[in-house]
Design a protein that fits this description.
The chain has 479 residues and is of the alpha+beta class. It has 3 domains: 4-85, Uridine Diphospho-n-acetylenolpyruvylglucosamine Reductase, domain 2 (2-Layer Sandwich), CATH 3.30.43; 92-209 and 451-467, Uridine Diphospho-n-acetylenolpyruvylglucosamine Reductase, domain 3; 218-434, Vanillyl-alcohol Oxidase, Chain A, domain 3 (3-Layer(aba) Sandwich). It has helices at residues 4-7, 24-27, 48-61, 109-118, 133-138, 146-150, 179-191, 231-240, 279-291, 295-298, 338-354, 372-380, 407-427, 451-464, and strands at residues 14-16, 41-44, 64-68, 81-85, 92-95, 100-104, 121-122, 157-163, 169-173, 197-204, 206-207, 218-227, 248-256, 267-275, 301-308, 325-333, 363-368, 393-401. The strands form 4 sheets. It has a 7-stranded antiparallel β-sheet with strand order 15-12-14-13-17-18-16. The protein is globular and about 70 Å long.
């Protein structure tokens, strides 16, 4: 049997061959340990030619290629996997004249933000700085209040470059004349997992000065902290912020009090309101609503600050750590009633009481945004698969546990809270919806794509990944 190292000897690939005693976390860094086992081989390429060699090796050995960048996608890694670690693809090249940026396949949101701010630009970012930009756009890419200004991340993509399953280096863009290339570009924008090893993609960039932020780069942030017992009052106030104005991002975060708090482990509610514009505008929107209620008397603490633009990633830092069994259970809706949010909160609280292993870091969030720009972009980019652009509300139950025996109870919770969050839309005849970024297998792809979208997605897979050499979520049974 040929030694894998001799196969790759003429390339610049780094090769790791795990054994049964290899600490998986020392060779693969991933947000979640769900479905994570030892791969057959780990290949770390430096060039597109290195990737082509990895494709050839995978075909010879009948392995499935799984490309990893930010490591936030919960996908199966096992002894039939060639794990393609793209960590070296970190290119960031700004084109000020065209107002675009070319982004390497492994560049994270924080890395890109840091570089763009040097030139006074920004683009559409995820809520976590640790997520890769490529992973963001492949699953649609909701970007908080930035989506109320510029739409989804996929609406801001102009080109992809990478290597196909046949070993071809290819570049596709929004103006491609070849129908197959245009179809590939469109499906990469929102349903792109398993179609291309992306070495780079290009996006539109926007001048930070256009937001008219205080002190050039400061966001207006109002934050209240409440005890869990006043969840009803908090949600009633939250509803008064709806429908959400453009540039505004109201968010409810439900967490457990830290060990050093007066009541460790107690449910705590954090209501934050962030405005991506001048503080004078923010105050005119929010202050009258506050004045018309008694919300401040229920708060344990409150503050209004001007926070650096980079602070948009601060809220996710506590759950950005890699390791542990984690997943996101996202529901997107047209509306959440007060009773629905309160019921979801109580189910989250119940999880912590019943499963101590999941108590400390499993959180529950609800937020809203103004979808006008997202809807308008969909009229132009109607071939980019993303269901329900008009849905303005998000609910996300992030679960985190460490003991395998906790899995059944956590999965039951995830099912329950998803059903709760979808009930208002269901009563109005709307189907459920989620973010494709959070797919764990093919069991709920109908929550991310319509039947017509799935026909187009499968048609493109048949052309560009016909034998599923690349991991394909549509063929993932979840076992």
């Amino acid at each position: 049997m040929q030694d894998p190292r001799s196969f790759f000897a003429s390339t610049t690939n780094e090769i790791i061959i795990p054994t049964s005693t290899t600490d998986i976390h020392s060779v693969i860094t991933r947000w979640s340990d769900e479905r994570l086992q030892q791969p057959a081989i780990i290949v770390i390429p430096s060039t597109r030619e290195d990737i082509i060699a990895a494709i050839q090796y995978a075909r010879q050995k009948n392995l499935t290629i799984l490309a990893g960048a930010g490591g936030h996608k919960v996908v199966p890694v096992n002894d039939k996997t060639l794990y393609l670690d793209l960590r070296k693809f970190k290119k960031i090249e700004v084109n000020r004249e065209k107002a675009t940026v070319e982004i390497g396949g492994a560049v994270t949101n924080l890395e890109l933000m840091t570089e763009l701010l040097k030139d006074g630009f920004y683009t559409t970012y995820a809520n976590s700085g640790a997520v890769s930009m490529a992973g963001l756009v492949l699953g649609g890419g909701f970007c908080g209040a930035l989506s109320s200004i510029h739409g989804l991340a996929i609406d801001n993509v102009v080109a992809f470059e990478g290597v196909t399953a046949s070993g071809e280096v290819i570049k596709v863009d929004q103006s491609a004349s070849d129908p197959k290339h245009k179809a590939l570009f469109d499906i990469l924008c929102g349903a792109g997992y398993g179609l291309l090893v992306i070495t780079s993609h290009s996006m539109k960039i926007h001048k930070l000065s256009a937001l008219n932020l205080d002190d050039t780069d400061k966001l207006w942030v109002r934050k209240y902290t409440f005890p869990g017992k006043v969840i009803g009052e908090v949600v009633d106030f939250f509803q008064k912020l709806l429908p959400v104005k453009p540039k505004l991002m109201p968010l409810i975060l439900c967490v457990r009090a830290p060990p050093n708090a007066p009541f460790p482990g107690a449910p705590v509610i954090i209501l934050s309101i962030t405005y991506y514009g001048p503080s004078s505008e923010a105050s005119k929107i929010v202050d009258p609503i506050v004045a018309s209620t008694d919300i401040e008397k229920f708060a344990i603490a409150s503050e209004t600050t001007l926070a650096p633009f980079t602070s948009i990633f601060d809220g996710s830092k506590m759950i950005d750590a890699h390791g542990g069994f984690k997943a996101q259970h996202m529901s997107r809706a047209h509306s959440f009633s007060t009773s629905t949010i309160v019921s979801a909160f109580n189910r989250w609280k119940q999880l912590g009481e019943e499963v101590p292993d999941a108590r400390a870091f499993s959180v529950f969030l609800v937020w809203g945004y103004n979808p006008t720009a997202t809807i308008e972009n969909g009229l132009v980019n109607d071939k980019r698969p993303f269901i329900g652009r008009d849905r303005s509300m998000f609910g996300n139950a992030i679960t985190w546990y460490n003991k395998p025996e906790s899995k059944a109870a956590v999965e039951k919770y995830a099912t329950d809270i998803s059903e709760i969050l979808q009930q208002d839309d269901s009563r109005q005849g709307y189907p459920g919806a989620t973010l494709p970024n959070n797919f764990r297998d093919n069991s709920k792809v109908h929550l991310g794509y319509t039947d017509d979208m799935l026909v187009d997605i499968r048609r493109v897979h048949a052309v560009w990944n016909p034998d599923s050499l690349f991991y394909n979520v549509l063929e993932d049974s979840g076992t």
